[in-house]
Amino acid sequence: MSRIGKLPIIVPKQVSISYNGIDLTVTGKYGTLQQKIPQHIIIEQNADLIYVSLKNERETYKALHGLYRTLISNMITGVSEQFNLTLILKGVGYRATVQEDKIILSLGYSHSIDIEIPKTVFVEVAQNTTIKLSSCNKELLGLFAAKLRSWRPPEPYKGKGILYKDEQILRKAGKSGK
User: Fold this and answer.
1) Contact 32, 79 (CB under 8 A)
2) Which of 42, 50, 107, 120 is 20 to 30 A from 11, alpha carbon to alpha carbon?
């Protein structure tokens, strides 16, 4: 049995959970999330605690036990508190703006880059070089941040690119560093 899978999940008072044997729906202050749960995973709710267990102890099921417990925990955290990410644009002339449902990036290319913002992700641009992302869905938030970052990943010679807030880039000396 998984060590993480055995831990109970604490449910805040403002979060409601419904489970019909297949679909788990979590509703809270910041939205609603749904997740399909495999049949061999059992979800039990006692007052403000949720326990995740297995019907049988096959090796493939054991591997998913901790995963689904963490997914459910992230759903509850997301709808009650939201997840936040901050991206920083580092480079001369790099900037970002938000227009309606698109984020427009100027990253040193001859053209600007327009990226559609997903419905459940909220984007705020501060000082033209700081992008603050927030969402109740942790997976979607990470995918959107990775999509933005893929246009200019951090490079080790000048330290330019799109970085996460507290990310450290190991710098290389380059040609003249002999």
Assistant:
1) yes
2) 120
Residues 88 and 139 in one domain: yes
Residue 176 belongs to some domain of the structure: no
Q: Which residue has the tokens 């297949």?
A: 22
Question: Which residue, 24, 26, 45, is CA-closest to 36?
Answer: 24
> For 65-109, what is each residue's pLDDT tens digit?
889 999 999 999 999 999 999 999 998 999 999 998 999 999 989
Per the structure, the count of domains in the chain is 2
**Do both 69 and 94 map to the same domain?**
no
Based on the fold, state whether residues 70 and 88 are members of the same structural domain. Answer: no
Task: Please return the burial class of 61, using the count of CB atoms within 10 Å of its CB with bins 0-12, 13-18 and 19+.
Answer: middle
Whole-number CA gyration radius for the chain: 21
